[in-house]
Amino acid sequence: MKKSLKLLICLTTIVFVVVLITEFQVVFFGEDAQPKKSDCIIVLGCKVYGSTPSPFLAWRLNKSFELYNRGYGNYIIVSGGKGQGENISEAQAMKNYLVSRGANSSRIIMEDKSASTMANLINSKKIMEENNFKTAVIVSNKYHLKRASLMSEKQHIDASYAGVFVSQYKTHEIIGYVREIPAIWKYYLISKG
């Protein structure tokens, strides 16, 4: 066997193993995530269609409201700015959604400036500090939780996690799991830089 072919096989094997390890981390972190009673619940932003939360965001909000009603947090921080094709900020759409389902408006704190997961967490951390919140439950899709945990650790947020899997959008969820592989690698590269 030629030396170059051996090298190619070796490199391909290494990449495959690294992909597999990363995907296992993403899957198992999301599946094992357990919320702990905390001062607040942080809902990470996601697409809004005009003024209506996307199905992924609605599931995150339903989960956060369920946790709130079960005493996992006294406040809900809804985090997300206004993106392209959105009539209002994600945070405003999230607050409107929760209030329409019976949530107490005074218990929902909006963070409406962020345009990324890292910005969600940086800005939510500031809100936590302003309100003397020490702990948080971070809510997102299960595939997103591993990367969110790396970012929240970097921001020194004492957090537990709760994830959702939107069963009627299985294809989108699977794509999300696959997309997290390069997203996590990118995060590692940037955070070490």
TrEMBL record:
One of its GO terms (biological process) is peptidoglycan metabolic process. Residues 39-159 form the DUF218 domain. Pfam families: DUF218. One of its GO terms (cellular component) is plasma membrane. InterPro entries: Cell_Envelope_Assoc, DUF218, Rossmann-like_a/b/a_fold. This is DUF218 domain-containing protein. It comes from Clostridium tyrobutyricum DIVETGP.
